[in-house]
Amino acid sequence: LYWSSTRGGDAGNVYRATRASLSDPFADVVELGGLTSTSIDAPSWISVDGCRLYMSSDRSGQPHVYLATSP
User: Fold this and answer.
1) Rounded to two decimals, what is the model's pTM?
2) Which of 12, 16, 51, 58 could form a disulfide with 4 if both were Cys (CB 3.0 to 4.6 A apart)?
3) In this structure, are residues 32 and 48 in contact, taking their beta carbons and an 8 Å threshold?
4) Which residues pair with 56 in a beta bridge?
């Protein structure tokens, strides 16, 4: 699960939580520091393999769509 939250005090940081099965609660909540800025950052879509995350952010002063990739 990926979401944006102001829990860190910024405008909106990106977080991730995982669970072992559909019946388990979400756990292992982590802030994705490499995607976070002091602006509003919000994840929009993650690829099935977890290697591409599209997100919106106004870190440049205007809203834009960004793509984060992982090997």
Assistant:
1) 0.80
2) 12
3) no
4) 42, 65
What CA–CA distance (Å, rounded) separates 58 from 14? 13
Q: Classify 64 as helix, strand or coil.
A: strand
Other CB atoms within a 10 A radius of the CB of residue 13 amount to 23
| Of the candidates 11, 8, 56, 51, the residue with the CA atom closest to the CA atom of residue 29 | 8
* Tokens standing for residue 22: 């559909």
Q: What angle do CA 23, 3, 33 make, to 5 degrees?
A: 115
Residue 28: which region, alpha, beta or left (left: phi > 0; alpha: psi -120 to 50)?
Answer: left
**Which residue's entry shows tokens 């939250």?**
5
Taking only the tens of pLDDT, the chain with its 71 residues reads 999 998 867 778 899 999 999 999 998 999 988 888 888 899 999 999 989 999 999 988 899 999 999 87
